[in-house]
Every structure is written in structure tokens, then in C-alpha cells.
Amino acid sequence: MRKLSNPTLAILAILFSFSTLFAQNPRKADSLRARLDSYTQRDSSYLLTALALSASLSYADPDQALRLIFESKDIADSMHLDVYNGRILNQMANVYRVTGNNSNAARYYVEALRFYEEKGDRKWVSNIHANLAAVYLNSGDTDKALEEVQTALDIRNEIGYTTKIAGVYNTFGNIYSVKKEKELSMKYYTMALDSALADRDSIWIAMFYGNIGNIHGDFNELDKCLEMNKKALAIHKRLGMRFDVARDQHNIGLVWKMEARYDSALHYLLSSMKFSEAEFINPLKIVNTNALKGVYEALGNYKQALYWANRNQAISDSIHKENISREIQAAQMNYQLEKDLQEREFQKETRALANTASLKRQRIITTSAATGFVLILLLALVLYRRFRDKKVANIWLEQKIQEKTRELSTINHQLKREVEEKEAAQRDLNTYIYRSSHDLKGPLMSVKGLVEVANNDPSPQPYLQMVSTKVEQLDNLLEKLIENVEADRRELISRKMDWEKLQKEVISGLKRNDPPHPLQISIEVQTREELICDPYAILGILRHLLQNAVDFRDLQKENSTCIVSISSRNGDFWIEVKDNGIGIAPDLQAKVFDLYYRGSNLSKGNGMGLYLANRAAGRIGGSLSLESREGVGTTIILKIPAKG
User: Fold this and answer.
1) The dihedral sign for the CA sequence 124, 125, 131, 134
2) 530 CB neighbour count, 10 Å cutoff
3) Any idea what the Cα angle at residue 608 is, between residues 421 and 597, rounded to 5°?
4) Helices then strands (H, E): number in the chain?
5) Residues 553-608: pLDDT tens digits?
6) Would you say 283 and 15 are in contact if contact means Cβ atoms under 8 Å apart?
7) Residue pair 75/42 in contact by the 8 Å Cβ criterion
8) I want to staple 526 with a disulfide (CB 3.0 to 4.6 A). Which of 281, 293, 567, 641 is the partner?
């Protein structure tokens, strides 16, 4: 039996570990829809059914699930059913979690946790902690996830709450699987399976069979891996859960592939591919096409292997486009939902104000009628008050309506601006992807040509050297691409700047500072004031600026110099990078911070350095400015607020 080196089984187990919890059981979803349609009025029973249906649709149709939750919230608010607020918040977080929106999921779980802590409901407090653990696991923070799920288990043990404890054990198993602690992962998955078997919960049982099978695969116990996945497949087929059937077939196909049973592997992988295409399961289509390519390569059928490789690339491109489209649709949907929510709140407040005014008018009429029987003078006085109060009430009501109208207009304008920013970001992303693919393709084609020439030349060493140069060029480009992608993901840190350490690190990362004209760099710290800022952001900015000075040094000059001076002026920190390079023409200076802009034919870079430096400066609240004269040199100034 060969070692299972391909980690796809484990990856699928983690990727779809929550899909079974929210996968739409067709029979259950249809039953809930029929029950919801049978209600003649929207009351607490309707609310509970809508929440149950939203839970069933969370994975299959998250947009519809969210709309049902918002509808449930309206019912709860109108009927003052505050007791359901915790369940509504928890279900809303569940939908955001399965769609990958971890920030919103965490936000609503925390609100639900606060609600149940105030109510003293320890069972729900335990459940919310377990849900938060799943969010942190999805975000990659395994330590925080472990802390939350341990809290959930401690509360359960404290109050003797064992109902559906399999979910808590499963979360432990998922966390340790991600941490590569296989023995602990197997321990908790087994505990989860035992609990699910005791509860006779078929959906959970099937999921744990699959998870345990994949851990057996990590231990190179392929027979047990195959046995467990077949058990999961049988249950999912019986329940009609096509999504999970496709996943189980993929896992079984991979085991047969590792056993070199290629006919069996092809049978299960092709069947999984058929299900995944019918159910539009894009992640599963990706791993299926990749596995099929590997099987056909092992069989020596390179034509079919190339076909599945091309399918894999096509599906990846399609997923990328769909993700972009889904982000825009999600932004538009959120805009519409927020708009509808604001309009409902506005209408509710308007009705309340109108009722208040109506009650005031009624009180005035009643008072005037009562006093009218007493005395004519009092009647005249009451009529006068009635007229005056009515006028004041109408003016007050009109003012309130105008205020709410202005608030709604402001909110609509903000939401519209957010959608426009999303669309602008989409256009920038399309340009970024096109230019990046073009820049990557050039060196790749060069490498391909050089390899072909080297294969036909008895002395391939010069060509191999050129290949190495092209590969280095590709590596540099990929570093910039990765830096661009991760630029907005890394959290900023606040730390006292160590200028001496910065001087050593900033120069060590420069490239192409080679003879015959090396750049002489000096760094001068002219201030004793402390700067609290993100040191990695400033290090990255300085490396880009100094690399720019290296790339554009004037080779006609005897000495190429660059002076970095750090000073404080008017409460701000100034970092000036001044070189005596070739300079920049006046008509080009406004474009140098644009993405992929190369200001000179002498440029050896990819047009991303100053763009990334400018983005990093903006993230820490700073700004970049430029002064340059052709043939004299360039000065770039980074201004940072003293508080960082």
C-alpha cells in the first residue's frame, strides 16, 4: 500500500465540513416551504417556520435565507417578540458564515451571545461560543477557535448539556485537522461519531464517517479510508443529498487512484464530476478535474490528461468571473436590503408620529367637548387651544418627516457611493488581472523557447543561464503580485520605530545594486522624537523607493548616490529619499504612482513598485509626494502623522 501524499482528501473534509450541516435536504426544505405557504397570517408560528426554512436554505440559497430572516425580524419587532431576537441573530450569522462573510458572521454571533448572556441562557451561550469557534477556524485563527470551542464544552459540562454535543466534538476535530495534529483530530471525530450514532442523526453520522475516513487516509490506512467514505456515500444517497454524494464519490475515487486501481478511480471521479456539474459545485469540479488529469497521466493517456487540465483551467477562470459577479451582486443586494430596512424604519417612525399627533388631537377634542358643557368662555378658550396645538403638532410632524427624509437621502447616497466604489474596484481588478497575466506570459514563453533550443544544443549552459534570469524575473513579478493581493489583508500593528534596525533591513532587501555603477546609499536620522507606526509598512515603502533609485540611476555619472533623511516637521515625520538619477519628465510625474506605469524605457521593473508604496502609505495614514528634474535626480517624500 503506497503512502497517501496527496492532501486533497483532508482539504475537502475541511472545505466542506460545514456543508453537511446546512446542505439542503430536499424533502425537509420542500416540507417547510409547504408549511410556510399554508399560514394565513404572519405570527409567531410563521416566524419559527421561516427561521427553520432559512436554516435549511443557508447553503443552497443564502439570498433567500437572508430574506426570510429579515422577514422574521419584522414579525418579531411588530409583535414585540423579543424572546426570538437571539435566534434571529444566530441564524443571520449562520448564513454569513457559510457564505464566507466571516466579519459579519462574527458580528452577529457576538450580538447573539450578548443577548443570551443577559437572559442567563447558558445552553445558548454554549452554542454561540461553538459557532464563533467555527468562524475563527474559517478565518484561519486556530488558537482563537480552540479557545472558543473549549469554552463551549466547559459550559456544557458545567450544566450537563449533552444534546447534539457531536457538533462540539466535530469542531475540535476540524481544528486539530487544520493544525495537522492527526491523533487528536481522530479522537474527537470518533467521539462525534459515537454521539451522532447515539442520537441516530443520519446527516451527522454520514459527515463523521467522511471525516474519519479522510483522517485514515492521512495515516495511510487506505482500506479504512475507503470503508468510511463508502458508508458516508450510502447514507447521503439514501437521503438524496446530491452535494455530499459528489464529495464522497470524489474521496473514494482518490483512494482508488492511490491504489493504482485506475478503472475504479475513473468510475467514481467521473460520477462525482457529473454530480458536481449538475449541482454547480465549483470547488468540487476543480479538484475532480485535477484528479482526472492525474489518473489519465498515470495511464499514459496524455490527450485525455490535457483535456482535463484545460477543463480545470476553464473552470478556474469561470469561478473567478463568478466570484467577481457574486461580489457585485452581494453589494447590490446588501444595498437594497439596507435601503428596505431604512425605509421600513422610516415608515414605522412616521406612523408612530402620526399616531402621536392623532392622540393629541383626540385629547384636545375630548377636553373641548367636556368643558363646552360648563361655560361658553371656557369653550372658546379650549377651541383656541385646540387650534393652536393642532398647528404646532402639524409643524412638529412636518419637521420630523423632513428630518427623516434627509436622513434616508443621506443613507441612499452613501450606499450608492459604496456600489460605485465596488464597480470601480472591479474595473481596476480586471485591468490588474489582464496586465498580470500578460507580464507572466512573456517570461514563460521565453523560458519555453529557451528550453526547446537548449534541448537541441550540445552546449545548453548559456541557455540555462538565460532561463535562470527569466525565472528570477518571474519570481520578482510574483512577489509583487502577492504583495499587491495581500496589501489590504495584513492587519496593521503599532510599534515604536527602531531606526537602526530599519537601516540594516531596508538595504538588505534591494536587488540589482550591481557594478559597474552601484548605488551608494546613506540613511540619516535627524530627529530624536519617537514614531509609533507599522514598521513592516515603512520597511516595504522604503524598499520600493530605494529599488526605484537603483533601477533609474544615471550610468553617465561617475557616482550614483541616494540619501535617505528622517526628520520631524510641524508634528509630522518626513522621510525623504533623494537620488541623483536620470530624473522624470514633468509631463510623466503625475502618473508614476499608477499601477503598471513605467516612466522610462530603461525601466527593468514591472510598474508596481511606486504603486504599492503609495498604497502602503495610504494605509498608515501617510502620503507620498514627488519632486524631480530630468538629468538631475528625484526626491520622494513620505509624510506620516506623528501618532502613526
Assistant:
1) negative
2) 12
3) 85
4) 22, 7
5) 888 888 889 999 999 888 889 999 999 999 988 888 888 888 777 666 555 566 77
6) yes
7) yes
8) 567
